[in-house]
Amino acid sequence: MAYRRRKLSEREDGFTLVELVVAMFVLAIVILAILTVQARALVTNADSQIRQGATAYANEAMEELRAMPWNILRKGLASNFKTAAGGDSFVAGSVLTVNGVNYALRVAPSGAGDQVLASPWKPLFDTTGSNKQVRTDPSGNGATYTVRAYTVSDPAGNTDAVGLVTVVTWQKRTNGEFENTVLTSTAYAPSGGCGDLNNAPFLASCQAQLYAMSSGGNVVITVGASATTVSGGAVVPTSTQAPLLPNASAYSLQMATAQSGARVANQQVSNVDAYATAGGVVLDDLDPNTQPEALGWLKGLDSATLRASNDLVAGAPPANPADISPAGAVTTTSLSSGSGLSMQLAARADDTRSGVADASTTTACATGITAATIPAGSPCSHTVFGNSTATTGYAILTIDGTDLQLGRVLHGAGNASADHAWSGRFSTTAGTANTGCTTVSGAGCVSAGANRTAGEINIGSVTGGWTGGKAANGIVRITGYTDSVMAQRGVNQKNTAASLTRTGTVSYWNGSTYANVALGAGTSAGYTTGTVEWESANIKVTATGRVTITPSQQASVYTDATCKNTACEVNASNGNITVAIQYLITPKSGAVDPFVISVTTQINGSSAAATFTESPNA
Fold this sequence. Notes:
globular, disordered N terminus, mainly beta, ten-stranded antiparallel sheet
């Protein structure tokens, strides 16, 4: 019996401690390997998800490019796209290089041929000219994508085609490296409003194309500073940029007043857009690695865009959306000097002016012209910025408690300001002499225009006056300024000239008195102001400047009397008035070297354009 119990006990023995430890060690190795593989799989899956998001954003940007009017694409990127985007590592000169492939960029020239930023076409350019957008993954995984859109020369060398490139940059979770998702395509010039069977991927409707846009001008004050040197016994500025004030962190300041814009596009359906961009102030340290927005140096420039459409497909914009307005944030900005000097630089835009964007395909639109409207049933848009009695746009330098008005745009009583931009599509009901399209037949007509009045613009005045009573009302004054523009194209307006007007008076100090220049649409002139001086107990200021007035201009394309093979178009803009003043600042203590503050005030004229391409079957 004892022997049986002993045998049973031996058979019931378990694992030894050594066997248990070995088994656990083996199991741990297996589990660790599984966890490692699973972790890598999760990261790889995350990269795959992010890559899919990048591809989606690249496709979205490409589809938006391909949906743009040919006349926008063929102009190319805005002339300032690289600066507006805060730099672009893919671009060197006029060449785009992505993943080892070079593309010749297509960029609009600055000036009258540039893209109209008041009428943005994202993703090619926004209201600042930037072709860059920063997007986030909608799934909430924390991924961010930098989306860039480019127009390039057609790789095949076709002159009637534009290459399209979208680049989406994203960061991999596996190794932290950045990767680029790139899409390329080609947009071909339409033929008489119909798709070219050799190029179009689907059958396009053979209908006329009509497009018109307008942009109200605005006032931009730009302030910069530079070091000085002695040349020929005189203190002169150098090309070395300096802080706006001694020991300040900003190197440039820009104040821009509000701007209005409008647009109409028609082929099969009509889409109308209204744009309202509020005034704003931007400081910049000229460091490509920092952005004004991130430093809190961009205030205002809020924009509102409204679109209406008579397209009946699901998801199309409404026919008569409610009016909208930009936010109009307060834009007060100031800097102070160091080095024992009492100097402050302050600026504010006309941020309290109310802006309204209106777009409709069913109700009438105002134009800002007395008793002139776009009639109900004619697709139209209108943007207006009214007067303000509370705030003027200004840039002021205060020295030892005395204000030097670098530039100010007055509003309020006696200085009413109003800015209007409008567009309209006339298919059955004709317009008036003020709106154009007075005769309508066939495919009809489109027109767009802008008109504005500005309060007094005062440049270079000192509280208490300059020394010797000179320039008591400022170095330059612009009073009674108005301008207007209207462009139209259609079946009966294939080569109709645009209308342009400009009035007002430019008064400048010539050294002994004020000289007055009456403004007209064709005025073209340049004048040098007399030198003025002012000094406090600690600082002396010497100022001189230059006034440049450019004439209005318009360019028309009418090489095909039928407008079938080549679009009939017109581009028109009122000229600009540029006042450039240099203030030589000389501290008397000698602790700070003399420096120059350069101030450019530019009154930008309004502009408009219109295009008509007839159907080849008309």
